[in-house]
Amino acid sequence: MTDPRLAALAQTLPELRLLTDPADLEHYGRDWTRRWTPAPLAIALPSSVEQVQAIVRWARAEGVALVPSGGRTGLSGGAVAANGELVVSLERMNRALGFDPVDRTLTVQAGMPLEALQNAAREHGLAYPVDFAARGSCTIGGNIATNAGGIRVIRYGNTRDWVAGLKLVDGRGELLDLGRALVKNSSGYDLRHLAVASEGTLGIIVEATLRLADPPPDSSVMLLALPDFASLMRVFETLRARLRLEAFEFFTDRALHHVLVHGAQAPFDETHPYYVVTEFAAGEAEEGAALAAFEHCVGEGWVLDGVISQSQAQAAQLWRLREGITESLAPYVPYKNDVAVRISAMPAFLAETQALLAQEYPHFEVVWFGHIGDGNLHINVLKPDGMAQPEFVAECERVTKLLAGELQRHGGSISAEHGIGLVKKPYLASTRDEAEIALMRGIRRVLDPDGLMNPGKLFDP
């Protein structure tokens, strides 16, 4: 440990675990974007809130920028450390701290993986209902920092809706106790909600108190094949009116192709343009309602084929067709757009966007999937063989600027659930106006006066 700044940190915190091996720097210095070369100063793995506070105070004294790190499953470059920052990984702070059966809350350290949190809630006969495919590796701190949504937003909302309170070490090293799990609190600004979706730019989330829900009802999963997107919206309206939907997800034939290549089982003998996987409360009445809704949609020509799960194993197979998409595309290192519009605006937006991408990406494969129930579309652009990565990214960024214009016209957002990070920073103005961005900068300066908390992310100073 030759850097004198690290020597000073080690002297201040002799029990702090510090990593400087090149393999560790690469592993902890990037997220799933893989577009920046990791170059952190070192990796700090604190085991307590006090150690996090001491790290921040050291950083202020030494002028070292900090990058908070959870599971690093983000897709916007929010956890990238490419300019000599100290990465502060919360992976050792991964314990449950307390359960309150009256308030039905669970308090955990920020480094707890989402799946471990879900399991802990289940042990108390309750559920933490926010869910997505990266549940085994993403952490609750990262989920809060990006206000992650996932596959059940239609029923349960985003992460923000389940955060009763949190503790944040700000850029001054102060520990802020925000929200305090009060159901009602009209005593001024709710700073808890500033921390949610702040992407580590206001401080490091170290602890969270989360509301829990009743266990979800028994459910069934239905996979439907559809001829076009307009039919998809009509099917959504029909099922939402007749069933208690837990999830409603769509994907295209190209998305299915990649999942099947990755090892999933083909659901139908024929290939269709669009697919929906939907989960709904099960029971004799619900099964009858689902069958009636299915027959109605078939009769209208909105559905071409379908299957309803008859077992948990079959339900898992059907969900794999949706949840396996991101993993199946990972070898291509796709350029990803994660956008949102109002549900009512989705048909018009999709038609215009498909036309735009067909015109601008004539030789690129574009894979679509998303969450219809909350207006969130994922657009994955695959690099053609033989095209250099920098040229591919430059071309995608040119088109993303055009896409941001489409979103602005439809009142949408350039980031639905992945955050802004580095990737989407140039397009923030399509979602937020100048006055809003100026206010956000001002808030950031108050909580991080030295500009050391995840600098360069979200917006420039």
UniProtKB/TrEMBL annotation:
Keywords: FAD, Flavoprotein, Oxidoreductase. Pfam families: FAD-oxidase_C (PF02913), FAD_binding_4 (PF01565). Residues 36-215 form the FAD-binding PCMH-type domain. Its cofactor is FAD. Belongs to the FAD-binding oxidoreductase/transferase type 4 family. This is FAD-binding oxidoreductase. It comes from Luteimonas rhizosphaericola.
